[in-house]
Design brief:
By secondary structure, the protein is an alpha/beta fold. It has helices at 15-27, 35-48, 59-69, 87-94, 113-116, 139-149, 200-210, 233-244, 246-264, 295-307, 331-339, 351-371, and strands at 52-56, 77-81, 98-102, 124-127, 152-156, 164-165, 168-169, 176-180, 193-197, 270-272, 279-280, 286-290, 313-314, 340-343. It has 2 domains: 15-244, Type I PLP-dependent aspartate aminotransferase-like (Major domain) (Aspartate Aminotransferase, domain 2, 3-Layer(aba) Sandwich), CATH 3.40.640; 246-371, Aspartate Aminotransferase, domain 1. The protein has 12 helices and 14 strands.
Length: 372
């Protein structure tokens, strides 16, 4: 058995979260109506510097609901980066539209604006940049292309709470943005999601569709298809506490990354997460790329780290590789997907923990180089 054990992620849940959730339980408001829901929406809008926020049940339905509110559906195309969690493409398919895969920038791992314009067709309705692993996409460049072609820009910010571009937080950089509050995210409600926007009419449409499309003036009257995409008051109570602690939670991740950088920068054969000059990184998961890995060697490499008690996670597969998504693979995404790993990233890690993780990573990287 290894002397220590480090998971990739661990939520930070403290006394304030317990206090607010217990208060919600004792109030009797445990479903989708309650004061914590409206408070969480208001506080999260302020966090993103947007006019509005709409709480939903998870990040995937946030994407789907945004597309439904924009009337994106059959016959439409939505351009997405190829390297992302599968929910990005699945949400487009859920809307009845077609995801079109764009390659990524090597330095940010996000959608490459230079590759975007060539993918636009008369059927293109929106572009959905993903702020991958906490690094924001190049939104000014993406927005400029979208504006020239009249496209909606939907930020998939599921992994980037607290990231920013030129000092402005993600969440208010496109026409709308969506977030996830899954248990491993920078801010969590266990499950849950959010849509943010400055567009009054769009947000009103999201609110109606979120609640079975019930008429706001005639109870239990429904003139169109809607969805049950609501967040519970219990989840929102947890979210309110997390938001109150957000600066400490985000600073903790910055501290952890700084320790990794001090140990890993300059190690031969290994490349750590980068941050563009214009970006504030949210450091959802620390990323490292190791030359010489392919799929099989990466799995063996991860097994050796696991034997030391160090859990790691591979980069997402490019979505174009999935057997039900029949598009050509993108070269940059395909390359980085097979050499990238996520390292343990949570705020309880101390210097001794980082030293142990990095010692193991450096040793296994050196062993890999010896086999080359």
């Amino acid at each position: 058995m290894p002397e220590r054990s480090y998971p990739v992620s661990r939520p930070s849940i403290g006394a304030l979260e317990a206090e607010y959730v217990l208060d919600a339980v004792q109030s009797g408001w445990i479903s989708s109506i309650g004061p914590y829901v409206t408070r969480f929406e208001s506080d999260f809008a302020a966090f993103c510097e947007t006019r509005h926020a709409v709480a939903v049940s998870n990040g995937t339905v946030a994407l789907h609901l945004a597309m439904m509110a924009y009337d994106i559906g059959p016959g439409d195309e939505v351009i997405v980066p190829d390297l992302s969690f599968i929910a990005t493409a699945n949400s487009v398919l859920m809307a009845g539209a077609t995801p079109v895969f764009c390659d990524i920038e090597p330095e940010t791992l996000c959608l490459d604006p230079a590759a975007l314009e060539s993918l636009i067709t008369p059927r293109t309705k929106a572009v959905m940049p993903v702020h991958l692993y906490g690094h924001p996409a190049d939104m000014p460049a993406i927005n400029a292309v979208a504006a020239r072609h009249g496209l909606k820009v939907i930020e998939d910010a599921a992994e980037a709470h607290g990231a920013a571009v030129l000092g402005k937080p993600v969440g208010g950089l496109g026409d709308c943005a969506t977030f996830s509050f899954y248990g491993n995210k920078n801010l969590t409600t266990g499950e849950g999601g959010m849509i943010t926007s400055d567009d009054d009419a769009f947000i009103a449409r999201c609110r109606v569709l979120r609640d079975h499309a019930m008429s706001p003036t005639r109870r239990y009257w429904h003139e169109e298809l809607g969805y049950n995409y609501r967040m519970t008051n219990l989840q929102a109570a947890l979210g309110c506490a997390q938001l109150e602690r957000s600066e400490a939670l985000l600073e903790g991740r910055r501290r952890v990354f700084a320790m990794y950088r001090q140990r890993l920068e300059g190690v031969p054969g290994l490349k750590l997460s980068r941050t563009a000059q214009w970006a504030r990184h949210a450091h959802w998961l620390v990323c490292v790329e190791i030359e010489g890995l392919d799929h099989d060697r990466r799995e063996a490499f991860m097994d050796r780290l696991r034997a030391r008690g160090i859990d790691t996670r591979p980069y997402f597969y490019p979505m174009s590789h999935m057997p039900y998504l029949t598009q050509a693979a993108t070269p940059v995404a395909s390359r980085y997907a097979q050499i990238g790993l996520n390292l343990p990233t949570y705020i309880e890690l101390e210097q001794a923990d980082i030293d142990y993780i990095c010692d193991g990573l450096i040793a296994e990287t050196a062993g890999l180089a010896a086999l080359a």
